[in-house]
Amino acid sequence: MASKQQRCNHCGILLFIPLEVQAFKCSMCNGITHVQSPGPVNQAYNSLNHIAGLFRGFVNTITTSSAINSNSGNYGTNHFGYYLQPRPQRPSYPLNPPSPYGSKRAVLCGVCYHGRSYRLKGSINDVKCMKYFLIKEFRFPSDSILMLTDDKEERNPLKIPTKYNIQMALRWLIEGSKSGDSLVFHYSGHGTQEVNMNEIDHSYRYNNAISPVDHELKGKILNDEINATIVRPLPFGAKLHAIIDACHSGNVLDLSFVCKMNREGYYTWEDHTSSINHKDTKGGVAICISACEDGQVSVDTSALSGKEVTGALTYSFIQTVQNEPGLTYGQLLSTMRSTIHGTKTGIVTLNGPIASLLNRLLGLRIKQEAQLSSSELFDMYKKRFVL
């Protein structure tokens, strides 16, 4: 009987099934997979499932190996073939591992771009502070936090914030999420805008993007991809918070609603939904707190902490939440903006004589407006901030 290869949507194993089968039950995890008919949409869907199968190996490589070692006796080649054999220098992984991540997990990316003219000095400090903050203030389990940095002391190649590793980490963050889960994505690094021509009316628009450490070779990660990876799959009852400390990050998650708040704290919601290209969740709530408007830049600074260089957004976010327990989103955004507005000098984002000249100018202030965007409308002064 003629057969074809098909990957299980649940555990990722590659199986051989008859050509005419429209749905099959996986012999390993008992999950039901519906076979999609060929077509551009289904091909993309199948590609995503293929990627999901691949990154399960990535997850277990970057987490502790104790669960892997304890299950090492379950692997063999006689029945399962080469699909379950461990690759050299990469441990095997159980098909149905009990999730050690619980209902709270986070991906923290800090990119400082060593040796580049645009090097940042505070990004690694930012993610280290954020990890401590999540554990101490919101009881995130330490093993549920995946941290990617280009710290010179980092030896694990899968924990370097390359484009591929960030993509895999974001898929890990959303994979298997369910109602009641709290997910956090924190990025501290360079952000930019990419020109994109609208195919409908041939007008030009800008896409926000983040810059992995290898962006010059592999390219940037656009807001469309971030939205497709961690926003659209977000299930009902789950919540996602993104804290993006980067330039041009106003709506880097491409969310439906953007909060516009003035200096007095009054706000309105801008509707960014489009009947042509609507990007909603599956019922979950996604909220992004970003460093500045789409057309603004953000800074590294020592002026906030007094000695350590940090991102202005990251520091003001952590400080505000710690100092005002039980605050609302409106209070959070307003206080963060006041903290950044009141900061003078200490800017270290630029290098060379220009930076020296700017830092000598008395009265120099950081000019960036922290932003908030959301997948749904809510009252900023009634909804309390909780991770």
From TrEMBL:
Reply yes or no: does the keyword Signal apply. yes
What Pfam families is this protein classified in? Peptidase_C14 (PF00656)
Which residue intervals define the domain Peptidase C14 caspase in the entry? 104-378
UniProt record, GO biological process: proteolysis
Q: Which GO terms describe its molecular function?
A: cysteine-type endopeptidase activity
Q: So which residues are the signal peptide here?
A: 1-23
Ordered alphabetically, the record's keywords are: Signal
* InterPro entries for the chain: Metacaspase, Pept_C14_caspase
> Gene Ontology cellular component?
cytoplasm
Family annotation (PANTHER family): METACASPASE-3, METACASPASE-4
Q: Which family does it belong to?
A: Belongs to the peptidase C14B family.
Protein's name according to its UniProt entry: Peptidase C14 caspase domain-containing protein
**Organism phylogeny:** Eukaryota, Viridiplantae, Streptophyta, Embryophyta, Tracheophyta
